[in-house]
Each structure stands twice: as C-alpha cells, then as structure tokens.
Write a structure and sequence with these properties.
Layout: H1 2-18, H2 23-29, H3 35-42, H4 46-61, H5 67-75, H6 86-98, H7 101-106, H8 112-132, H9 137-144, H10 152-163
Helix pairs in contact: 1-4, 4-5, 4-10, 5-9, 6-8, 8-9
Length: about 160
C-alpha cells in the first residue's frame, strides 16, 4: 500500500512539472464551457488545468456524458489558486498520510500557513468560484463534496480525481 501511494505521488510530481494544455484541448472547452467558466479554468495553474482535463478524460472513458459532472471534474481544484506551490502540496499529502503533526511543523515556514490553509479549504473555495462563474447547483455541490461524495456522480468524481 505504501509503495502504491508513493508511486502515485511521484507520478503526480512529475506531472506537476511537465503539465501542459494543448491549444486544441483548450479550444475544445469553448464548446461546452460558458465564458465565465472558461475564464475560471484559464486562471488555474497549468498543473491543475492538466489534472482537470485528465479527470474529465477519465470520466468520459468511463462513459460519463453528464455535463455537471464533467464541469466539476474540470474545475474541482480551481480554489487552490496560483500561490499554492509544489512544496505546499507535498506537505499536505504527507500530513494526510502520516499525520497533522507535519502540517503543524511546516506551518512555521514562510508561506506554508497560507498554502496549507488554501489546500484545506479548497473544496469550499472551488465551489464558491464555480457558483460565481455560473455553474449549476449540481456542479457546485459535486465540487463542494468532492472529498466526501454524497451520490454516485460524486463517487465517480472522487475516483477519477484519485486516479489522476
């Protein structure tokens, strides 16, 4: 189990550094996002954009065509913002895995208190930003409950998120 967790985290780290969104991928979004939703996507860090696109691809590969779910998959991390860096993400993941003492210890370093707070609160902030961008109530609730799904669509989102 630990080996699989570390492998997944190393893969995500590699992806973080190599994240790219092709022009064709970005152009395709114009067909199903509103301008406000597209703007929200465009404001995300490259790694979160790539992750969102990969989550959507996973959902589609599983047969989902539910627009609310696909938009939630694309935007579910928009609340992390541009100032959450890889070091914050590493500390967050280690804290989830090995205990909150890691968060307490790292919060004494510059920027960590804010970065960890953004990660802790990103589901609610992402839901608020999605609502402000005109996403449906269903999309907003999928984003808000992404870590503790309340329905089958939410469980699909969580599985695709964890797989990517």
């Amino acid at each position: 189990m630990a080996r699989g967790w570390w492998s997944a985290k190393l893969r995500r780290t590699w992806t973080y550094f190599h994240a790219r969104v092709g022009l064709d991928e970005r152009a395709e979004l114009n067909g199903w996002l509103t301008p406000a939703q597209a703007s929200l996507f465009d404001g995300m860090p490259a790694a979160d954009k790539r992750h969102g696109l990969d989550v959507v691809a996973d959902l589609r590969a599983g047969g989902s065509a539910n627009r609310d779910l696909l938009v939630a998959g694309l935007l579910h991390d928009c609340g992390k913002g541009l100032r959450v860096r890889l070091v914050h993400r590493v500390a967050w993941s280690l804290g989830q895995r090995y205990g909150a003492w890691i968060w307490r210890a790292s919060s004494h370093m510059p920027t960590f208190r804010t970065g960890l707070a953004k990660l802790r609160d990103h589901t609610e902030r992402s839901a608020e930003l999605a609502a402000a961008a005109g996403c449906t109530a269903a999309t907003v609730e999928l984003i808000r409950n992404q870590e503790a799904p309340t329905d089958d669509a939410g469980r699909l989102l969580l599985a695709a998120d964890e797989a990517n």
